[in-house]
Amino acid sequence: MNFRFKKDKMKKVVEWIKREKYYLVYIGILISITSYFSFLILTDSIQFKPSIVGQFFKVNSKVEVQIPFTKSYKFEVDPMKCEPCEKVGAEPPRCFEREERRSNNTRLYSELIPNFEQIYDGNWICLPPTVIRINSYGFRDYEYSPEKSHNTYRIIALGDSYTFGLGVNLTDTYPKILERLLNERNGSKRYEVLNFGIPGAGLIEKVELLKKKGIFFNPDLLIFQWSSDDRLNRTEWEEFINTYIERYLAEHNLQREKLDEFSYRQLLSEAEKNYFMGRYINESQHALRIFLEENFKDLEEITEKRGIKVILLFFRADSTEKSILEEIAAKYNWFIVDCDKYTSKEYILHEKDPHPNQFGYKLIALEIYRKLVESSIV
User: Fold this and answer.
1) pTM (2 decimals)?
2) What is the tally of structural domains in the chain?
3) 208-211 contacts, C-beta under 8 A, 24 or more apart
4) DSSP 3-state of 315
5) pLDDT of residue 62
6) Residue 378 pLDDT level (bands cut at 50, 70, 90)
7) d(C-alpha 329, C-alpha 313), whole Å
């Protein structure tokens, strides 16, 4: 009885909808929505594609609706006039001019552009804006004369972006914090810590930079920052990256000029991850040892000849690398400072950008300072 009542009631509702023609409204809305999304797809305003992970479309892959690549992006003519992003961690950066250029020296790959200035608001995600200034000698620091006064103790910090200080101002990088700590000590000696960090620089490039530029500033001490990507061969890396990007664009029917700088950097980042996974994940310990011993032997010859003391600074190094480098350091009487404990989230800029923040750099500088004092280096 109850079932029959419900059936009759439903039948009356359907007849009322047909009589009042409300179904035409629903059909009209459905047609409008379908037409709208069809237009977006046909005009490339929406792209259905997998995430940029180097894995291409499969039947069972999760399909994502992504914001299209911006077609109207233009580089800033003057990087100091760039309007930085505002929502930290929630939007892409806007200031993509960079302080590097290709070097004529094939062992250096890239070099910093002398007297270059720019606003930096992040590489992968929006960060609070900072200012990058490159001095006339081509490194991120104040102006220093290659000649030093008789009462000056000079330190050169060789490293990649972690030494350079992407995401913080110059005064908040560990070389400058260390410089202040040393000069606050009692005594008539003056300390200078020169920041020779170049983003992306590997072991071969750092040693070459010391040969071609660093030694002319007559350092007494060298801080050599080591990270796992120091094993990178950037010529080989570049060939892999170019092939990877070309393949990705072809697979997804995209053109390079349709990618804005942020989208391109995302693609570049994924290509880099694939390179490291393929190049180093299965590298033997023997091959790694040969590579490290050959290049650090070169470093030892430069520093031993000039009486330059050496500190190896570990930052994001794996246990195998550390083990071999500790043996090398013991052989050459070098000092070691391990700062891998300062890579957790409270010490970095953002979960998507692992470079140290101001607090992280301060702790790194304090670790180095303690080593210098405890070892009677200064």
Assistant:
1) 0.75
2) 2
3) 208/105, 208/107, 208/108, 209/108, 209/158, 210/156, 210/158, 210/299, 210/302, 211/302
4) coil
5) 31
6) confident
7) 11
Residue 260 belongs to some domain of the structure: no
Specify whether 12 is located in the same domain as 90: no
pLDDT over 50 (residue 66): no
Taking only the tens place, the pLDDT of each residue in 319-349 is 999 999 999 999 999 999 999 999 999 999 9
> Domain for residue 302, yes or no?
yes
Shared domain check, 85 and 61? no
Domain termination site, one of 66, 88, 110: 66
| All residues at 6 or more sequence positions from 227 whose CB lies less than 8 Å from its CB, including other chains | 159, 160, 162, 315, 316, 317
How far is the first Cα of the chain from the last one, in angstroms, to the nearest whole number? 98
Q: CATH no. for residue 363? A: 3.40.50.1110
Q: Are residues 49 and 93 in the same domain?
A: no
- Strands 190-197 and 353-356 come out as unpaired
State whether 123 and 218 are in the same domain.
yes
Q: Which residues constitute the domain of residue 113?
A: 79-232+283-374
What DSSP assignment string belongs to 238-272? HHHHHHHHHHHHHHTT--GGGS-HHHHHHHHHHHH
On the CB side of 33, how many CA atoms lie within 13 Å of its CA? 6
> Are both 332 and 294 inside the same structural domain?
yes
User: Coil, helix or strand for 216?
Assistant: helix
Distance CA(119)–CA(121), nearest Å, equals: 7
144, part of any domain: yes
The strand pairing partners of 222, in sequence order, are 156, 310
Rounded distance between C-alpha atoms, residue 175 and residue 138, angstroms? 16
DSSP 8-state code for residue 49:
E
Same-domain pairing of 325 and 219: yes
Average confidence score pLDDT of the chain: 82
- Of the candidates 134, 142, 132, the one whose C-alpha atom is nearest the C-alpha of residue 112 is 134
Judge contact between 109 and 234, C-beta under 8 A: yes
291 and 146 in one domain?
A: yes
pLDDT tens digit string along 99-143? 999 888 888 888 999 999 999 999 889 999 999 999 999 999 999
92 plus 47 within the same structural domain: no
